[in-house]
Amino acid sequence: MAVTNQRYSAIAIVLHWAIAFAILFNIPLGLWMHERAEANDVSEGVFRAFQLHKSIGLTVLVLSLVRVGWRLTHAQPSLPVHMPTWEKQAARVTHLLFYFGMLALPLTGWLYVSAGWSVHTDRPLVVPTRYFGLFHVPDLFGLSHADDDVRASTAFNVLKLHWALGWATLGLAGLHVAAALKHQFFDRDEVMAHMVPGLRAPFAKDSAAQDGARLATLGFGLSVTALLGLLALYTVFTLPMGNAPPLPPSTFQTVEATTGADTSTATASTTATPAATTAATTTPTPSPTAGGVVNWRVNQGTSSIGLSFVYQDPENGDTTFNGVFGQWRGDIRFDPNDLPHSSAVVIIQVASAHDGVDIHDRGLPTAEWFDAGAHPTAEFRTT
Ligand code: HEM
């Protein structure tokens, strides 16, 4: 057992800061995602944000397991002798709660996505998790194959927990930082220097402390580099590069409905009813080139995007299945007197395809059909 009484070891410092940055990054990202999903924003950017959040969260889970292992097998710097017992106990409880949060937060997130059920639409939504775009992460406990009731109640309950743990961890982090600052500036002891690279206790002068500081700086640098490296990997592998191509004149960019090996075929059709067609109720935001063209609001309640496919069976005849895409958005700019400036874009979250047949609902997002992991959205554009 390695004893480091002056500071935490470089490994412990790297793990501490990598986990801290990742959690602090993931909390606002998660809250933002939730808000976007509530607003039915199914754009590519939101999909990427979900994948990024899940990948960083799973990284936190792995790093936290390593950190717990390290903590159990290595001695920690002892707390200053002047600290009263209550303060030492408060520090221990805070640290224990941190370890709990570091493991429970990612696990509840993982459970939520494993259920494959959207709390926003209260419908099945299986979106494969790709770790930084590199490989697929399996579902926990085969939850996406469970009954709908189980999947729905798991999703609603664990997401509530996930949310509560996020806020609790944020509160704990606030307490933790306040305590560290108190040690540095009021108690003027060595507690903060144990973990902050390059920092020396207000009273420290010896060269051993300086060596430790150099090692710790290295650890800090490595952890930041590792984080940036992961983000870069993610960018290279999954984020779309460059600007979106310009709208082609007067054509549809059609949904490529991938057919399965059983020679089924798929088509998609759309009906959209403008709920409010006047400038006053639609709060139009004319684009620079659109002149007076009005933005129409699609009435989601009375509109749907249908999906129909035929199962071809030479022995028993063909069967047609009809379903819908549960999540989509339409941006329509239209003025019958100004067709050159009119256009419509419909963005569909392909993983939301369902027809009520359980085996189809689970299969449609997979690579055999729409391959939602690789092609999260389908877009119709017309001018
Ligand atoms: C460092 C670890 C993590 C932190 C700090 C974190 C934090 C959060 C927070 C605060 C939210 C907002 C919750 C809400 O408003 O309802 C959220 C949402 C979410 N998290 Fe995490 N999370 C972590 C790990 C994970 C992991 C590992 C996964 C899945 C593999 C995940 C999946 C999700 C999903 C899918 C949502 C959005 C749910 C929705 O549609 O509203 N999270 N996260």
Summarize the topology.
Layout: H1 10-38, H2 44-73, H3 85-115, E1 117-118, E2 123-124, E3 129-131, E4 135-137, H4 148-187, H5 207-238, E5 265-271, E6 274-276, H6 279-282, E7 294-298, E8 304-311, E9 319-325, E10 328-334, E11 343-349, E12 353-354, H7 358-363, E13 377-382
Antiparallel strand pairs: 1-2, 3-4, 5-8, 6-7, 7-10, 8-9, 9-12, 10-11, 11-13
Helix pairs in contact: 1-2, 1-5, 2-3, 3-4
Bound molecules: protoporphyrin IX containing FE.
Keywords:
Lipocalin, disordered N terminus, alpha+beta, binds protoporphyrin IX containing FE, 383 residues, four-stranded antiparallel β-sheet
Folded structure, characterized:
It is a single chain. The strands form 4 sheets. Strands 6-7-10-11-13 form a 5-stranded antiparallel beta sheet. A 4-stranded antiparallel beta sheet has the order 5-8-9-12. A two-stranded antiparallel sheet has the order 1-2. It is built from 7 helices and 13 strands. The chain is elongated, with a radius of gyration of 26 Å. It has 383 residues and is α+β, with helices and mostly antiparallel strands. A hairpin with a 4-residue loop joins β1 (117-118) and β2. It has 2 domains: 10-238, no CATH class; 265-382, Lipocalin, CATH 2.40.128. 45% of the residues lie in helices and 16% in strands. Bound molecules: protoporphyrin IX containing FE. Residues 22-23, 26-27, 30-31, 33-34, 37, 50, 53-54, 57-58, 60, 105-106, 109-110, 112-113, 129, 159, 162-163, 166 line the site of protoporphyrin IX containing FE (HEM).
